[in-house]
C-alpha cells in the first residue's frame, strides 16, 4: 500500500499548466475577459507619455543654467535638475525593446509553463515596474524609472502580451481571428483607459510641492497588479485534442492556406513563411506607428488655423493662445486614432475568419497604399473630415495587423506552438517601433531644415510610407503553406485523442451557455472599463469638428 502511494504522481501545483486544464462544464467564453484584463493593463505602455510633461517639471518650472548641458548619462543620476522629455522618452523605447526580447526568449517556456504562471509573472513585472518607477520619481533618479518601467515593465509587457495567444487560438479553432483580436484589442485600449485615469489621479494628488506623479504611478501599479493577477487566475487551457461540439476542421485543399498539422518551434524560423510574415508585420506596423507617434504635430502643422476657423493662419503665425487650442484639438485627434486602433483589432481580425488572413493583409496593404497616397491631396484641398477619416482607417488597419497575425501564424504553422512563434515574431513589432518613428521624424526635420512650409513637410513622408506597403503587399503575396517536411508527426497525438471517451472531442466543455456569476461579472468589469475609456476619448475627439 505504502509503495503504491509513494509511486503515485504528486498533484500539480496550482501554478502548473496541468492544474489549469479545464474540467467538464467549463465555458470557453470565460477565457477572453481574463485575457482582456491583462491586455487592458499592459496597453498603458502606449499612454506613458501622459507622465512626461509633468515629470519634466517635477522640481519646478525654472531650469538652472547648469542643467541645460546635461547629457543622457548625467540626466540618469541627477537629483537637482529637471528631466528632459527626450530623456524620459527613453523609458518607452526600453520597454518596447524588452517587450520584443522577452516575448522571443520566454515564448517556449510559456508553452511549457502555461498562461497562469506567465500571467502572474507579467502582473508582478508590470505592476511592480510602476511601483519601482514611483520610487524613482520620489528620489528623483531617472535610472530607477528606466529600470522599473523600461526593463522590468518591458518584460511584463512581453509575457503579458503573448500569454493568452496560444490559449485563445486553441479554445477558438473555429474563430481564431476573433478570439485573438478580442484580446489584443485590449492592448490597443489600455492607453484609452489609463491616460485619462492617470490625468485624474495626478490632478487629485497634485499639491504646491509636487506634480502628483509618484503617487499616481504607485496607485496605478497596485491597480494593475490586482487586475492582471485576477486575469491570470482566470486562465484555463483546453484539454489536448479539444474541439467545439459539432465543429470539424475544414477539409484540406491543394490551395488552402490552413496547415493541418504543427511545425516545431525551433523549425518555424527556418521556413521562408516565418520571415515573409515577419516582413509583412514589420512593414504594416512601421507605417502605422510612424503616423501614430506624430499624429498630433501632423494635424497641427498641416491644418493650423483651419482647426479654429482661420484657414489663413499658418502654423508659424499662430498666437500662443491659438496654439494651445489647436494642441487640445490635436489631442482629440490622437484619441480618435486610438479608438480606431482598438476597434480595428477586433473588426479586421474577426473579418479574417471569413475572408482569410492573406486577403485581409492584401486589404491592409492595398487600401493603405491608396489612403497614404491620397492624404496629402486631401490635406491641401482643405478636406479636413476626409483627411481625419483616412487616418482613422489607416490606424484601424495598423491595429488589425497586430491582431490578425497570431491567427495567420496558427494557420501557417499550426496551433501547438503558436504562442512561442508569435513571441519570436514580435521582434518585427519592436523593429517597426524604431524604424517608423525614425523615418517620419527624420524626414520631417530634414524638410523643415530645407525651408519647406509646415503644411507641406509630411507629403514626402506619406509617399514613402505608402511605398512600405507596396513591399508588404509583395511579401504577403509570396506566403505559401509550409512544405510537408516541416510538419511534426501526428501519430502520437491521434492515439491520445482516441483514448479519450469523447467521440466529438468536446470533453463536456461548452462553447456557450451560462457564464455563471463570476464570469458575468468579469465581462461587466472589462466592458465598463472599455466603455469609460471610449467615452473619455470621444469627448476629446469631438473638439476636432466643433
Please give a structural write-up.
This protein is an all-alpha fold and 546 residues long. Helices cover 68% and strands 0% of the residues. It has helices at 2-7, 31-42, 52-55, 72-77, 85-113, 115-138, 142-162, 165-171, 176-205, 213-233, 265-268, 272-293, 295-303, 320-355, 357-380, 384-413, 418-425, 427-449, 459-477, 491-498, 516-541. Helix 6 packs antiparallel against helix 10, helix 9 crosses helix 16 (384-413) and helix 12 (272-293) crosses helix 18 (427-449). The longest helix has 36 residues, at 320-355. The termini are far apart.
Low-pLDDT runs of 5+ residues are: 1-8, 491-502
- Spatial separation of the terminal alpha carbons: 81 Å
What is the H/E string? HHHHHHHHHHHHHHHHHHHHH
Number of E strands: 0
Structural class computed from helices and strand pairing: mainly alpha
Calculate the mean pLDDT score and round it.
85
Radius of gyration: 24 Å
The total of helices stands at 21
Beta-strand residue percentage:
under 5%
Main sheet overview = none
The helicity comes to 55-70%
> What overall form do the CA principal axes indicate?
globular
Keywords:
mainly alpha; 21 helices; disordered N terminus; single chain
Amino acid at each position: 500500500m505504502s509503495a503504491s502511494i509513494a509511486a503515485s504522481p504528486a498533484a500539480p501545483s496550482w501554478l502548473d499548466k496541468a492544474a489549469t486544464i479545464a474540467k467538464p462544464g467549463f465555458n470557453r467564453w470565460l477565457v477572453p475577459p481574463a485575457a482582456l484584463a491583462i491586455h487592458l493593463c499592459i496597453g498603458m505602455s502606449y499612454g506613458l507619455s501622459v507622465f512626461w510633461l509633468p515629470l519634466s517639471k517635477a522640481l519646478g518650472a525654472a531650469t538652472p543654467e547648469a542643467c541645460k548641458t546635461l547629457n543622457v548619462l548625467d540626466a540618469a543620476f541627477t537629483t537637482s535638475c529637471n528631466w528632459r522629455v527626450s530623456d524620459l522618452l527613453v523609458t518607452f523605447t526600453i520597454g518596447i525593446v524588452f517587450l520584443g526580447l522577452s516575448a522571443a526568449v520566454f515564448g517556449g517556456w510559456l508553452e511549457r509553463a502555461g498562461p497562469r504562471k506567465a500571467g502572474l509573472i507579467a502582473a508582478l513585472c508590470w505592476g511592480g515596474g510602476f511601483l519601482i518607477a514611483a520610487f524613482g520619481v520620489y528620489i528623483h533618479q531617472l535610472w530607477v524609472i528606466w529600470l522599473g518601467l523600461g526593463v522590468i515593465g518591458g518584460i511584463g509587457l512581453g509575457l503579458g502580451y503573448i500569454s493568452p495567444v496560444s490559449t485563445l487560438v486553441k479554445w477558438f479553432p473555429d474563430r481564431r481571428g476573433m478570439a485573438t483580436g478580442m484580446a489584443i484589442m485590449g492592448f490597443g485600449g489600455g492607453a484609452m483607459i489609463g491616460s485619462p485615469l492617470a490625468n485624474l489621479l495626478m490632478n487629485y494628488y497634485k499639491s504646491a510641492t509636487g506634480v502628483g506623479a509618484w503617487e499616481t504611478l504607485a496607485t496605478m501599479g497596485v491597480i494593475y497588479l490586482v487586475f492582471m493577477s485576477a486575469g491570470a487566475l482566470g486562465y484555463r487551457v483546453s484539454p489536448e485534442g479539444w474541439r467545439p461540439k459539432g465543429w470539424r476542421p475544414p477539409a484540406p485543399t491543394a490551395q488552402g492556406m490552413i496547415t493541418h498539422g504543427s511545425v516545431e518551434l525551433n523549425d518555424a524560423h527556418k521556413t521562408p513563411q516565418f520571415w515573409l510574415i515577419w516582413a509583412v508585420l514589420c512593414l504594416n506596423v512601421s507605417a502605422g506607428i510612424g503616423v501614430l507617434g506624430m499624429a498630433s504635430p501632423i494635424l497641427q502643422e498641416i491644418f493650423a488655423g483651419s482647426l479654429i476657423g482661420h484657414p489663413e493662419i499658418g502654423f508659424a503665425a499662430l498666437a500662443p493662445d491659438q496654439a494651445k487650442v489647436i494642441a487640445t484639438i490635436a489631442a482629440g485627434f490622437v484619441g480618435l486614432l486610438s479608438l480606431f486602433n482598438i476597434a480595428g483589432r477586433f473588426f479586421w481580425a474577426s473579418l479574417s475568419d471569413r475572408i482569410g488572413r492573406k486577403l485581409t493583409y492584401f486589404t491592409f496593404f492595398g487600401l493603405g497604399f491608396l489612403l497614404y497616397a491620397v492624404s496629402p491631396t486631401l490635406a491641401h484641398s482643405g478636406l479636413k473630415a476626409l483627411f481625419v477619416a483616412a487616418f482613422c482607417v489607416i490606424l484601424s488597419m495598423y491595429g488589425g495587423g497586430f491582431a490578425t497575425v497570431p491567427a495567420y501564424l496558427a494557420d501557417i504553422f499550426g496551433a501547438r506552438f503558436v504562442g512561442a512563434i508569435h513571441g519570436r515574431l514580435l521582434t518585427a513589432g519592436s523593429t517597426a517601433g524604431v524604424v517608423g518613428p525614425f523615418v517620419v521624424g527624420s524626414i520631417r526635420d530634414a524638410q523643415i531644415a530645407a525651408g519647406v512650409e509646415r503644411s507641406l513637410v509630411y507629403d514626402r513622408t506619406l509617399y514613402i510610407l505608402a511605398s512600405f506597403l507596396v513591399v508588404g503587399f509583395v511579401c504577403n503575396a509570396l506566403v505559401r503553406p509550409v512544405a510537408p517536411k516541416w510538419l511534426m508527426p501526428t501519430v502520437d497525438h491521434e492515439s491520445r485523442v482516441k483514448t479519450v471517451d469523447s467521440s466529438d472531442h468536446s470533453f463536456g466543455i461548452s462553447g456557450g451557455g451560462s457564464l455563471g456569476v463570476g464570469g458575468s461579472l468579469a465581462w461587466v468589469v472589462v466592458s465598463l472599463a472599455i466603455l469609460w475609456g471610449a467615452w473619455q476619448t470621444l469627448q476629446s475627439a469631438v473638439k476636432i469638428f466643433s
